[in-house]
Structure formats: structure tokens, C-alpha cells
Amino acid sequence: MSSQTLHLTTASLLRTSILASLLAGVIIVLFILPAEYNLDPTGLGEKMGLTALAQETQNSAVSSTSDTDSGTQQSSGQQLITLSLAAGEDREFKVLMQQYDKLNYEWVAYGAPVYVDLHGEPAGDTTGYFESYTVATADNMKGSFTAPFAGTHGWYFNNTSSSPIEIRLALRGQYQLPATH
Fold first, then answer.
1. Tens-digit pLDDT profile for the chain (181 aa)?
2. Where are the alpha helices (DSSP H) in the chain?
3. What whole-number distance in Å separates Cα of residue 93 and Cα of residue 154?
4. CA gap 21, 25 in Å, rounded
5. Alpha-carbon span 87 to 90, nearest angstrom
6. C-alpha radius of gyration, the chain, whole number
7. What is the pTM of this model?
């Protein structure tokens, strides 16, 4: 019986580590980003049908059981919402919250920074009153929010750039999605 000794040099360990890192990066870009996040920098994810997986996940996250008494959809867990805005387009996304309900949120704008106004409107108010909590131009924002009053609370996004953008908004907490979303 002969015994073989394996000699590893620093150079061979470094070369193997670099190769493994490169392979992991390729796997992330080609498979993980398109399938999980609908980000497809190479275009191959769409050709392989991986972006459809991410879109199905996002669509099922927004759909939930309808509450027929109030015309709303009750949230549970985390929601992922994707908004596409053309150049110069604006859009609001709001949720219904009771006073002191808590909401954790994070959004990212892909393509360009976006003007955003996080605000709320009291339930039953017909005067047009709203209260702004955050007004900024940014490409991302993360935070938590406690509703100071019952009503609709959400974001006004305005794409002031000359390019289309996509906004991905993740929500977790106590809220209801209006039936129109």
C-alpha cells in the first residue's frame, strides 16, 4: 500500500478560492437574480423562463384572501409589490391602517432616483387633508412606521427622469391592501 501526500500551496488555494468565487457570481447573475428578484442583467433569465418564476412569486404575494365586509384584502406576513413607471409618470401606493398599527417597509428604485412622499390621509376625511411623513428624492428607503391615525398611508412616487424605472416595495406589518391593488 502506498500513501500519497497532498501538498497544497498558497497559490493553489488562492486560485481555487478565486475560481469558486467567480463561479458563485456567475450562478447568482444567471440564475438567482432572474428567478428570485426578476433582475436579468444578461437577458438569459428570460430566455430560460426564470423571470417568470419571480413574477409569479410577486403576483402571489400581492394576492390574498378578500375580506368581503370591508372590500379590502387582509395582509399576512410580507408583501412584495413591483411598480413600473415610465419617464415622467407618477403613481401612489397606499395601505389601510388602524391607529397605532406598525409597518416595516423597504423600497428600491431601479433605473434612476425617484421623488417620493410618504404620507397618510385620515379615514372619513373629505377635506383633502394629508400629512407627509417623509419627502425626498432617493433610489431606496428603509424604515418602520406607526400610523398616527386610522386611514390610508403610503407613497407617492414621481419618476422625474427621462428613463423608465421599476420600484420594488417590500412590506411587513399590520395593514390591509385596498381591493384595487
1. 556 777 778 888 889 889 988 888 888 878 887 777 777 778 887 788 777 776 555 444 443 333 333 344 445 457 899 999 999 999 999 999 999 999 999 999 999 999 999 999 999 999 999 999 999 999 999 999 999 999 999 999 999 999 999 999 999 999 998 755 4
2. 10-27, 44-47, 50-62
3. 6
4. 6
5. 9
6. 22
7. 0.58
Spatial separation of the C-alpha atoms in residues 82 and 17, rounded to whole Å: 36
67: Cα within 13 Å, side-chain hemisphere: 14
Query: How many Cα atoms are found within 13 Å in the side-chain-facing hemisphere of 61?
Result: 19
User: Which residue ranges form the domains of the chain, and what is each CATH number?
Assistant: 8-62 (no CATH), 66-178 (2.60.120.380)
Grid cell locating 145: 412606521
- Is residue 78 packed enough to be buried (19+ CB in 10 Å), middle (13-18) or exposed (0-12)? exposed
Q: Which three cell numbers stand for residue 94?
A: 397606499
